[in-house]
Amino acid sequence: MTAEAEQLRAFPSPFSIETPEGCEGWEEMYPPWALFDERRREHDENRLWFWNSMHFPVPMPAFDMVEVDTPYYALGGWQNRAFAVPGAMGVDYRIVNGYVYISPNPVTDPEKIAERSRFFQQRAGYYYENWDELYARWRERMEALNREVSEIPVPGLPEYEPEAVVFEGGEPSWATLLASYRRALDCIERMWQYHFEFLLLGYGAYLTFSEFCKQALPDIPDQHISQMVAGIDVVLFRPDAELRRLARLAIDLGVAEAFREGRSPEEIEAELGRSDAGRRWLEELEEVKDPWFNMGTGDGLYHYYGSWHDDPSIPYSSLIGHIAALQAGEDIERPTRELAERRDRLVGEYEALMDEEARQTFRELLGLSRKVFPYVEEHKFYCDYWFQSRFFNKIREFGALLARHGFIEEGEDIFQLSRYEVMQALEELALTWSTGGEALGPHHWPQIVERRKRILKRLEEWTPPPALGRMPEAVVDPAIAMLWGVTPQQLQEWARAQRDGSGNELAGAAASPGEVEGTARVVRSLEEISEVRAGEILVCTSTSPAWAPIFSKIKATVTDIGGIMSHAAIVSREYGLPAVVGTGTATSRIRTGQRVRVDGTNGRVTVLDG
Which residues are in coiled coils (predicted)? Predict the structure, then answer.
């Protein structure tokens, strides 16, 4: 093996990563099993770990680790223990300087794969055969859970208990407090259980269709397979559709001038409130908010994302863009007709290349993929946005209570404590409130919170390598390639970029066809989304369907992480925008203001100026 080949086989050892200056002690924010440990060195050092920047682009606050542990054991439970997906068990994770790295656990024993296949076919088959009924029930359960988490009581710990506790056998406030916190954690565990129940099957149907296509049509590009499932209406695109309707209404009512670039939502609403037409528009907005403003502002996995209810800057930024486009005579609708025509044309062309038996199988698998595909995106509205924003707001109520009693300086500080530490703080609060004793918490937790805030801020300045450990000979879990874009070829590109440094060419997955040139807008945080201007090319770690409203403003998308069925790829295709995903390093190699060319047909990005 040549020196170059050997160099391209390995990424940095996870045990060689140094702690950034000023971040010493970062490990205390995370549970011991989340860390690389010398006692697992041989096991961990000889496998590939890649930064899951799609879901966790910035360092994890201590409490937000509930969004790492809980989904991974729910994913593993369904994938490994319930459905017994033949080739994949679950996903291991580790934290490096606050960032989440993951590594899949494949099944490689042919006998075990055959055994699991029997389980999977029976259990997945039941879901596919009863999909509509089961999915309708799922929606009801999720809507009930979203209501439940909002209604959890957080008692104020009064000076004296209400009479109902004394005379009617009511639950004491301290017991309600502790039970309510446990119930909130129970709700998020159930949400993640619901989240993954159908998701694996949605991906599984697409994978089966994809594998059949590649077997029957060896030269078919991945992009054509995904395009044959595109153009399907899903709940997730409804919020943006409502914004487009509101944009037209603003023009029809003659209040469009209130929506000027750079104005805050508060400024716009203040001007609208001064006229009858403006107030009519605001009344229509209120009708739209339930449920469509439950849309998230990010992927829902960090406490500060919230929903459009919490931060209306995204929908208002979109309204401004939609109104400007309409006034310029532009079409602001998603190109659903063009997508459908392209989809149907591809289907017809590929069917013509098959014999009758293969054509029948092709139609059945394509029909199943289209049937189950909406869930792949819709679950995010119900789970990642609607539930998550309400869950974190409920935790804020516990934070406000702790702040009132001096355990933390302000309510938001609760997210600097792990979910276990929050329980400790609440238990001591319940104890000392009940007894009238002196609490240690106000002397203990505030300094921990301040130290962790400083560490997280410093860790945000560190750029994690895209991967760690040993490069595998093959990536056996197809979902890893489909969702994250981690393929042997892409890993080689990441390793080559790491070795050779920057250049003006980046390679990734060809996620959505077309070629455009434009000005780059690098977005690394939620706060920067509102800075995106019409006609720019979005460059980001990954996108979330929550960003869908800005896709009518931009010309193309480039991401660090993601595969052909990542959310960035799906949303780009649904909006007819060129996209290259999974480049590994786009956000560190491209600067805002640079001219770039995005070739979404061939998966290439070129920086056109210095």
Answer: none
